[in-house]
Amino acid sequence: MLIVYKILEKREIAMRNTWYKVQAPHVAKKVQPGQFVIVRAFQNGERIPLTPVMWDRDEGWIVLIAFTRGKTTMRMATELKEGDYILNVAGPLGNPAPMEKFGKVLAIGAYTGIVEVYPIAKAWQEIGNDVTTLHVTLEPMVMLKEYFEKAVSRHIVEPVKFDPDKSFPENMKNVTKALTGKVRELLETEDWDLVFMVGPPGDQKAVFNVVKEFGIPMRVDLHPIMVDGTGMCGACRVTVGGEIKFACVDGPEFDAYQVDWDELIHRVGFYSKLEKLALEKYME
Ligand code: FES
Fold first, then answer.
1. Which residues lie below 8 Å from residue 1, measured CB to CB, with a gap of 6+?
2. Is the CB of 229 inside a 6 Å radius of any atom of ligand 1?
3. For 54-106, how does the pLDDT look when each residue is reduced to its tens digit (9 = 90+)?
4. Does the Cβ of 66 fall within 6 Å of ligand 1?
5. Residues in a beta bridge with 52
6. Each residue's pLDDT tens digit, 192-240
7. Which domains does the chain possess?
8. How far apart are CA 46 and CA 51, in angstroms?
9. Which atom of ligand 1 is nearest the CA belonging to 236?
10. Who has greater pLDDT, 282 or 223?
């Protein structure tokens, strides 16, 4: 049977973030919160991991939200239109998030990390947890607010002023500061049973350093570089509890206290110069 991945809807929902509603019945039928797919949008193109944010099992669609970061996501954002087809969507991959009664949960999303938090936080709330979500990002990148407000006990947004005259990394420093400051305030003023976070590894580490002062359990979804998403290529290797793990098949969720953060941050930056070059070349 020929499977086609038609783009049913496409729109920019926040600065550098594009919403794709894609026909993918085999994914929609089985996907669980916490799982991801590997998308190959173009012939001979790069494979990128993306998270189904919402889905309809009967209608057979999933929603993916991609942050425009490198050449592939830029090509997707600029070349693909509604009615076009994505070449393939492999998945669902990875382990579903544990569906347990933790109690009072603080689920944090930095930048586009919030899109991964959505299905997990929603499901945790549905099974009886008291979930507060926190989205810290640059102001023009705030998204999904109305969805979170319907899905969890409380949704907090901390928008950080975006200065267009400064570089993106310069702006990002203010996000890290706002993030750790808000997390500290929440941990100091309320009791929590679990902290969960998705976002860039540098920000995850910064938040973890705050959380560990309070001794609260913390879980994280990790985002190392991925290629096949099935445990074959080794690209997503992380060290957790002193053991080598592959985020795609052993994760993506891990205990933050066990993660070798410095190794992860180093590995994620491996190809950043090449990524920048590829994007610059594409934009010429
Ligand atoms: Fe290749 Fe995980 S992406 S082993």
1. none
2. yes
3. 999 999 999 999 999 888 898 999 999 999 999 999 999 999 999 999 999 99
4. no
5. 64
6. 999 999 999 999 999 999 999 999 999 999 988 888 888 888 888 999 9
7. 5-93 (2.40.30.10), 104-221 (3.40.50.80)
8. 16
9. 2
10. 223
Residue 270 has pLDDT above 90, yes or no: no
* Residue 90 near ligand 1, beta carbon < 6 Å: no
Ligand 1 within 6 A of 128 CB? no
Cα angle for residues 18, 277, 69 (degrees, 5° grid)? 20
Mutate to test the pocket of ligand 1, among 36, 222, 236 (most ligand atoms within 8 A of CB): 236
Q: Is 236 in the pocket of ligand 1 (CB under 6 A)?
A: yes
Interval between CA 224 and ligand 1 midpoint (Å) = 9
Q: Is the CB of 20 under 6 A from ligand 1?
A: no
Nearest atom (ligand 1) to Cα of 233: 1
CA distance 136 to 108: 8
pLDDT tens digits for range 131-147: 999 999 999 999 999 99
Residue 213's contacts (CB-CB under 8 Å, 6 or more residues apart) are none
DSSP letter string, 172-215: HHHHHHHHHHHHHHHHHHS--SEEEEES-HHHHHHHHHHHHHHT
